[in-house]
Amino acid sequence: MACEKLFFPEIKNIFSSLKEVMISNKDRLIELDGIMGDGDLGLTMATAFTVAAEEVSATAGEADLGKVFSKIGMSIVKAAPSSMGTLMGTGFMRGGKAVKEKTELGLPEMAQFWRAFVEGLMERGKTKPGDKTIIDSLDPAATALEKAAAEGKSLKEGFAEALTASESGMENTRTMAAQVGRLAYNQEKSKTIIDPGSVVGYLVIKTFSECIN
Description:
- The protein is mainly α.
- The protein has helices at residues 8-24, 26-36, 41-58, 65-79, 83-98, 107-125, 135-150, 155-172, 187-190, 196-212.
- It has one domain: Serine Threonine Protein Phosphatase 5, Tetratricopeptide repeat.
- It is 71% helix and 0% strand.
- α3 (41-58) crosses α4 (65-79).
- The mean pLDDT is 92.
């Protein structure tokens, strides 16, 4: 049965699933990142979300979900101090701040969380939509959640729409020229490949959606 609000047990389940998803996609992410990058993305994300899952388990039922997300972010930054690890950790910390002192998260709160998450990444990474980064799969998802919340839709409906938007954003990176990072050194060639970071963003949204639904 789909849940309409997230409490600590649901958050714990989501991060347990994220750990497994990133481990199972490790080789895929390494391959994608290795085309024009340094190829460490799969290892970084597997490490980051393994530590994140451990951090959630160690909180022993913390009621303040904003605090839970903030701790997750800090643990990721410490365990995976690469560019993507730092960005992911920053996103969870910013999202956690947006839902500070919340003990349950419905669609409106999740929309606030993901908007803050995306803004945190854009500020930290000095990026914007269209630069061929993780933002291109996460920003559409955040926008879809905001729209669904404004329309009074359910958490399940909101994340179903966010997943569709995120997948579309990820696929759109195939036609973009990279503006930042290693891919930017080969802007024209970068148009032929999907952005590895956008795949990570999509996997995160997909996991949230599947756990909620």
